[in-house]
Amino acid sequence: YGGELRYLGTTSSTQDEARRWADDPQQPGSHGAVVVAERQTAGRGRRGRSWQTTGGTLVFSVLLRCGPRGQPLTLPELALLPLAAGVAVWQAAGVGGLKWPNDLLSPDGRKLAGILLEADLRGEEARRAVLGIGINVGAAPDGAAHLHEFRPELTRAELLSDLLRELRRWLSATPDEILAGWRAASLTLGRRVRLQTPTGPLDGIATDLDAHGSLLVSTPEGLRTVSAGDVQLIGD
Ligand code: BTN
């Protein structure tokens, strides 16, 4: 990862740049190509949210053209990829822990980093996906945390190189390794969480992950399996 790297000043979103690079007939980006930008004018987050780039954010996207064994990405691999990327971010940042599925939170629960996986699905597999990561390094939007509060010496360049190394490792890890890594990084398991369901909010205790990386939540209405969306951490 990062063997090919483009560094941009301002762009709409590094996700779009990575896609354009993949489609470039002259010099198509290869697997692991990385686009880093100083600023995004239309950075996006999960579930249609926007992602604000303040002066001190590290934002980049990685082009993935295949799964860990050189094959197209299958649905089970695609389900675990965001968790694997979360573990990589947690390891490189060296602080806090993960809220399911992959937000890196500070020890006091403020958001430090977010991850967005966009896969081009064809039926049950994808030949291409773009993994986007945004980390608040030297500054953060209101209510969020930044890494310099905990590791003032860390530079964005150092963090990027540590992260690319961890991504190389975790994106090719086995499902069992990814699940074990995620459990170790978790700030979610054992905690009270609130789920949004079609019939309203439902509270329970996050107990574990299943083999697909879905979150198992024990609620008064029975065990729920959460495979998409967000959970809210509540109380202790
Ligand atoms: C989230 O927490 O909702 C995910 C945030 C992902 C933001 C990153 S920044 C680099 C890449 N480019 C984007 O437009 N989004 C991702």
TrEMBL record:
Record's keyword terms, sorted: ATP-binding, Biotin, DNA-binding, Ligase, Nucleotide-binding, Repressor, Transcription, Transcription regulation
KW Acyltransferase (keyword) present: no
Top EC class, one word: ligase
Reaction catalysis annotation: biotin + L-lysyl-[protein] + ATP = N(6)-biotinyl-L-lysyl-[protein] + AMP + diphosphate + H(+)
EC number from the UniProt entry: 6.3.4.15
Keyword field contains Protein transport: no
Residues where biotin binds: 40, 44-46
BPL/LPL catalytic domain sequence ranges: 1-179
Record GO terms (molecular function): biotin--[biotin carboxyl-carrier protein] ligase activity
Described function: Acts both as a biotin--[acetyl-CoA-carboxylase] ligase and a repressor.
Family: Belongs to the biotin--protein ligase family.
The protein, known as: Bifunctional ligase/repressor BirA
Naturally occurring in which organism (per UniProt): Deinococcus navajonensis
UniProt lineage: Bacteria, Thermotogati, Deinococcota, Deinococci, Deinococcales
